[in-house]
Amino acid sequence: MINEQAINRRAMNLSLATGVLMLVAKWIAYLMTGSSVIFSDAAESVVHIVAVWFAWYALRVGTKPPDEDHPYGHDKVSFMSAGVEGGLICIAAIVIIVSATEKLVTGVSLQKLDIGMSITAGAALINLALGWYLIGVGKKNKVLIVEANGRHVMTDVWTSAGAVAGLFIAQWSGMLWLDPVIAIVFGANIIYEGGKLMSISIKGLMDSSDPELQQRVQLVLTDFCLDHNCSYHRLRLRSSGNMVHVDYHLILPDDMTMHDAHSLATSCEELVRAAIDHNTEVFTHLESVSQPDGHV
Fold first, then answer.
1. In what order do the strands lie in the sheet with 244-252?
2. Which of 78, 175, 176, 215 has the most crowded CB, counting CB atoms within 10 A?
3. Rounded to whole angstroms, how far apart are CA atoms 85 and 81?
4. Do 188 and 143 belong to one domain?
5. In b/e form, how buried is each residue of 228-245, taking b as 16+ CB within 10 angstroms?
6. Which residues constitute the domain of residue 257?
7. Domain total for the chain?
8. pLDDT tens by residue, 81-140
9. What pTM was computed for the model?
10. Measured on CA atoms in the order 293, 294, 295, 296, is the torsion positive or negative?
């Protein structure tokens, strides 16, 4: 666990440092060219820095152990981080669309496009490597904060790649109005990506069910109960970011001793954890056939 936490923090440190460098490079490219597309890329990078900082902070809070004020831990901060990041992305997209629309109305003037495209292309390649790395670390260690940040970086990559392609076409064809038009298209795509992050955040904070995990646990419990002459009900499952919480009622024969019931429940919990393949906390409420639902 310690090694995983160190890897996660190192990944976020790298993301923050790279983000600052990319921000400087893109704003230099925008000031040199006056391109709406490059401005959209640079504006998204400003939001990215703020979002990465929040994610960097959330990662440290989320790994804290449970305490008196937070008996279930601090994992849900990862959903808050994803929501803030998605919201900031949408704000940046609105700024991009408004700026590009103004350029369409007032006229487009571009300069030094070769240098601007070279800087933007270089930034895209660096972010491509960073995005793959962050998504890989996030998926491997099952850390939503790191994975969400990696997907944000990949959005930045496609924005940069599209900016270079659009500027090349505009320069080659002489249709400079394509610059703000492409920026508007990018803005719409960024809103879509930001909306997906906000959806993940809302579902997590509202404890929405996960059908896939629910089905896995149901299969395990059904097979286990068939093999051990028992039954279950009241299965509930929720994810708090880095931890999955499962609870259910296990109904056992009246003549089973407490020792045997506890051993049986422990075996069942181990199978549930293995099926989820994630940091999992399992609670089993034991009931007897003659007194179901815990009612005396």
1. 231-239, 244-252, 280-288
2. 78
3. 6
4. yes
5. eebbbeeeebbbbbbbbb
6. 211-294
7. 2
8. 778 778 877 887 887 788 778 777 777 666 777 888 888 888 889 989 998 998 888 878
9. 0.61
10. positive
